[in-house]
UniProtKB/TrEMBL annotation:
PANTHER family for the chain: ADENYLATE CYCLASE-ASSOCIATED CAP C-TERMINAL DOMAIN-CONTAINING PROTEIN, UPF0225 PROTEIN SCO1677
A Pfam family of this chain: YchJ_M-like
UniProt source species: Sedimenticola thiotaurini
Residue ranges occupied by any YchJ-like middle NTF2-like domain in the UniProt entry: 28-128
UniProt-listed Gene3D superfamilies: 3.10.450.50
Record SUPFAM superfamilies: NTF2-like, Sec-C motif
Protein name per Swiss-Prot or TrEMBL: YchJ-like middle NTF2-like domain-containing protein
Amino acid sequence: MSPCPCGSGLEFDACCGPVLAGERPAATAEALMRARYTAFTRVDMDFLGDSLHPAHRHDHDEAATRRWAEESDWMGLEVVATKDGGEGDQQGEVEFIASYRDRGGMVRRHHERSRFQREGGRWYFVDGRLVPPKTAVHSGPRVGRNDPCPCGSGRKYKKCCGR
């Protein structure tokens, strides 16, 4: 038995496996999002296409999706937040971060808020919006150009680390 790539802590056969195989539908929006992540790790293009909301399939670029799935080394999934999307809801939102290594070896984080909708008792992915990174604000004192360099070299900042 192998752990599910979605990071739930469950075995694949008890988590996303039956959803990907079509043996049972995802019970919640989060469960579908986790199954879609697992489908990316397995390059399961049929599931990715079938889990798209029918009204949004017209602009699905399967070739680009396949390329991204195949050329990425999927490293993990973190569910940041969920809003609605439970078994009794008709719509929901899941915010997540999917980490992966691209072809060039760069580790990347795909941070997205995805919308899901339930129709006919089945959850579908509607669309997603990227979450912009937060701007880091330096909270320490600013080093002036002519101040001693904080690295301890004894030189002015502008002649040392400020170059």
